[in-house]
Design a protein that fits this description.
mainly beta; 4-stranded antiparallel sheet
């Protein structure tokens, strides 16, 4: 049984608190204008790493529609093992569901059927546990300061090298192609 105070659910002893977001690229919303047919692809969010099939996960996102009608579907490629749907309702709506048994696939895919609405999904999160915490990007979506510092040092080194401080085009070798 859930108890709500001021629209906030109180935790119970059986709740399992969530942690990091396991979906990549959630800073960019998914958006689509439905055409009234079935299987209009809204988009996919890829997993940041392989998920543990023994763990419980929960998904949540904010979905905005400019009109009622149709259904939003969620599946887990390749076999749509985790398959959920929700009616499309005008306004901002929270879509949330337990996503157990995410044992295969690389992403969660979203489609819209039988809707002419403009639909936008934002702040998507997939967390371990049974309680969603506030949205944040996956750790893999962040670029580390150390990565910027290494790039800055490489550019400074090139600028101070050959040709009297003016780098030559041959100095610009992609970092991933350099010998270790």
């Amino acid at each position: 049984m859930s108890i709500f105070i001021n629209h906030q659910r109180l935790l119970t002893d059986s709740d399992n608190l969530s942690g990091r977001n396991y979906l990549l690229g959630t800073s960019d919303p998914l958006s689509l204008r439905g055409d009234g047919r079935v299987v209009n692809v809204l988009g996919s969010y890829y997993f940041s790493k392989a998920l543990d099939s023994t763990q419980e996960y929960i998904f949540q996102a904010i979905v905005h529609a400019d009109q009622d009608g149709g259904r939003l579907y969620c599946g887990n490629d390749p076999d749509w093992y985790v398959y959920r749907y929700q009616d499309v309702v005008k306004g901002d709506n929270i879509v949330s569901f337990p996503a157990q048994k995410l044992k295969s696939g690389t992403n969660l895919k979203f489609t819209v059927d039988n809707s002419n609405a403009q639909i936008t999904m934002r702040n998507a999160t997939l967390n371990k546990g049974s309680v969603i915490k506030e949205w944040q990007p996956a750790p893999e979506d962040y670029v580390m300061q150390s990565d910027f510092n290494a790039l800055k040092a490489k550019v400074e080194s090139l600028a101070n090298s050959k040709n009297g401080g003016v780098p030559h085009f041959s100095d610009y070798v992609p970092l991933e192609m350099e010998a270790a």
